[in-house]
Amino acid sequence: MSGAADAATTELTAAERVRSVLAQAVSLSLTTEGRDYELIGMHSVDAKGRIYLHPPTGSPLAAQIATAPRGSLAALLEFTDVAATAIRDRVRARVTISGWLTPQNPDRDGEVVRLDTARVTLRTAAGARDVGLDEVALAAPDPLAVEEAGMLAHLSDAHEDMVAELVVLAAPQLPPGILRTAPFALDRHGITLRCEYPQGHCDLRFPFPAAVKDAVGAGEQVRRLLVAPRCAHPFSVHD
Fold it and tell me: pTM to 2 decimals?
């Protein structure tokens, strides 16, 4: 079901979604030849979306990369985007990036390893799609990406009334029997709520009247959604 909003202008692009997941991530899963690693706080992403790993000097990963044939090591990185609120099916997206790890000159904090990317895949509830390397390099993370988790948690904990009011606005379009509703996602284009039922769930997306640049703007747009005439509310419902 959908309202009057044009989804093409009220959602992040696939490349922006990838960059946003990378900007939010503090951990990743790494698979190399015969080894699996869970890395926490050991990567960085530059302005072009290039990924660097920072394994401790003398660690198994640093040793494996240093002894790789031809000076680089085939690798598969997976970043998991998990909703900040305690809901069912909290995984919102997975970004899988394959390529080769190449050691760089160490910095004062230890080893530096560059990922030369070969392929980027974004997986969401809508399915999987490859995202062009040029698209990723040219895209930017959503301006709310780093703050999103804290904003959703605050909205869930301190503003249950606002969440409930948004659900009321869309009630005629929703299946009956909602058990619980919680904030699910927030970006510059809108807010998404998850409505849970005894069996399954649906996601309720409210596009903002105008795209925002920061957390203050997002709060203002949510309030505008609540005071606008009911007939002025575009939204979409996704199973």
Answer: 0.90
CA distance 203 to 167: 11
Q: Is the dihedral of CA 212, 213, 218, 224 positive or negative?
A: negative
Block means of pLDDT (10 residues each) for the chain, length 239 residues? 47 97 97 96 96 94 92 96 92 97 84 96 96 98 97 92 88 88 96 93 91 95 78 59
